[in-house]
Automatic annotation (TrEMBL):
Residues 5-130 form the Glyoxalase/fosfomycin resistance/dioxygenase domain. It comes from the Bacteria. The lineage of its organism: Bacteria, Bacillati, Actinomycetota, Actinomycetes, Kitasatosporales. Residues 60-80 are annotated as: Disordered. This is VOC family protein. Pfam families: Glyoxalase (PF00903). Gene3D superfamilies: 2,3-Dihydroxybiphenyl 1,2-Dioxygenase, domain 1. PANTHER family: PROTEIN YJDN, PROTEIN YJDN-RELATED.
């Protein structure tokens, strides 16, 4: 799998509706996973979107989610640039360069969904998410 670069939008509780709207606009395949799908079935946000991904026939990829509990949602500051793929060395190299001189909000480490993930803001104030897909098996 080649590495992918795409926008990632955070929503204030209406990610499902927004991602379904973008599917109507662009077409394609939409996959939505809730917080309940990832081990929090009894939490108040269980039906909210933890991760959504739309892949379109034109080659566009758009990702989005509802802001996690305790994380402030501010329209206008609700996006990140996402880097994802399965090339561990390549993506870790990008992470090191992007986080240098910036700030790390989520260290690059294994997460509950099985991948290695981190969030940082580069020295220019741009938020980044890096997800390294772990091999299955």
């Amino acid at each position: 799998m080649a590495s992918r670069l795409n926008p990632y939008i955070s929503f204030g509780g209406d990610a499902r509706q927004a991602m379904e709207f973008y599917k109507e606009v662009f077409g394609g395949t939409l996959n939505l996973n809730t917080y309940g799908d990832f081990g929090r079935p009894d939490a108040p946000e269980a039906d909210k979107i933890m991760h959504g991904m739309l892949e379109t026939p034109s080659g566009f990829t758009l990702m989005g989610s509802d802001s996690p509990p305790g994380m402030e949602h501010t329209t206008g500051n609700n996006f990140s640039v996402s880097l994802s793929g399965d090339d561990d060395a390549e993506l870790r190299g990008y992470w090191e360069k992007l986080s240098a001189g910036g700030s790390v909000s989520v260290p690059l480490e294994k997460q509950m969904w099985g991948d290695v993930f981190g969030m940082c803001t580069d020295r220019f104030g741009i938020p980044w998410m890096v997800n390294i897909i772990e091999p299955q098996g």
